[in-house]
C-alpha cells in the first residue's frame, strides 16, 4: 500500500454514527459447530437516538458507583491496559445477578472507562453498545453491560485471560513463548468464523478494524473479536459498498478503501489476509525496525507467497518443524488470495472458514507432538487448565504472567 505507518487512521465521521439497518439476535449455542452460521431471528431496525439504542440492548446498565466498587475504585494495580481513549480495569461481579462482589470472587470482568473529553470517543462507545448489545456469537467478545451516568461512559466485557493475539505474536521475553503452528491456525479459524458471522446475510456488518490487537484469547486460546467502535452496517439493496471517511489502522486497511473510502466486506477480508500473514510470519504488518524493503509485511512477503519453493522464507523460524509442507502452502495461498489488490478476487469469509477447518487436522498440518500445541508446553503439564494466582499485583498462570494487552496496543481502546 505504500504507507509505512503504524498509527490509527483518524477522521471525523458524520454527525450520526451510521448504524441504521437490521440487527440480529443470536442464540450463541453454536460454540462447537464447524459452521460459521448461527440460527437467528431478526429484530426491528436500530433506532437513531442514544436513548433508544441503550434501551434496545440486551445488556445490563450499571451505575458508576457499582463499577467503581467492582474495580476497587479503579486502582492502578487493576489496570489491564490504557491509552488515548481511556483505561481498562479488572473487576468482579456476581455471575448470576451481576451485582458487585468482593475482589477475587464471582465473575471476572474487564471495565473500559473512556476519557471524559472527545466526541469521537463517545460515538465509538455508543457504536460498541449498539453492536455488541445485540450481536451474539462464540467468536465475538461478550458485552455484559455499560454505564452512562452524567459524564461517565464505561463498558463492561467478559474477561479474556490470555489477552490479545498481538501480545502472543510479537512480545518477546522468557514469559512469552511463541504460539505453536497449531494454535495459530486455531486462532485464525476462530477469528474467521467471527468475521463470517458478521458478514452473513442476516447480520450484514463490516468490522472495519480487524487486527491482532482486536483479537482476544480465552484460557483455551479460542479467538474472539473485540472493539466494535468502527463497525458499520453493510450496503443494502442494490448498493455495492458503503461510502465512509477512511478510518482504521495503517497496514491493515484494504487499498481500495484507502483510495476511495468505499467500504465492503471484502475490506475485512483483506485485513484478515494481513493478520493471517502476521501469524504465519511472526512479523508485524508495518515495522520500520526491519531492513529496507521489509518495512511493509505484505509488500515484502507477496513475492515469496507466489512461489512454492520460497514460501518457507516467510514462515516464522520459531515454529520450524511444526507444520507440513501442504499445511504451510495452504495457509500461505489463502493469505495471498485474501490480499489480492482487486477486491473481487478475494474470497468471502464463508469460503475462508472451511479452508482453515481442514488445517485443523493435526496429521495434515503439524508434525509436532500433542504437547507442542501449547506455546508453554515445555514448562508446564497439559493435564489440566492453567491455575491463576496473584504475584505482586500481577495475574500469573502456572508461574507465568498473563499476557494482557500492552498499554500501547490494548484492544479495549483506540
From TrEMBL:
A single Gene Ontology molecular function, please? Answer: protein serine/threonine kinase activity
Q: Which GO terms describe its biological process?
A: defense response
Q: Which UniProt keywords apply?
A: ATP-binding, Kinase, Nucleotide-binding, Plant defense, Serine/threonine-protein kinase, Transferase
Region of interest: Disordered: 22-51, 360-414
EC class: transferase
One short Pfam name that applies is PK_Tyr_Ser-Thr
Tell whether Cell cycle is among the UniProt keywords.
Answer: no
Q: Does the keyword Nucleotide-binding apply?
A: yes
Compositionally biased, Low complexity: which spans? 31-42, 367-383
Enzyme Commission numbers on file: 2.7.11.1
- Span of domain Protein kinase: 74-356
Give binding positions for ATP.
112
Which PANTHER family did the record assign?
OS01G0588500 PROTEIN-RELATED (PTHR45621)
Question: Which family does this protein fall into?
Answer: Belongs to the protein kinase superfamily.
Identify this protein by name: non-specific serine/threonine protein kinase
Protein species of origin: Kingdonia uniflora
Specify the taxonomic lineage: Eukaryota, Viridiplantae, Streptophyta, Embryophyta, Tracheophyta
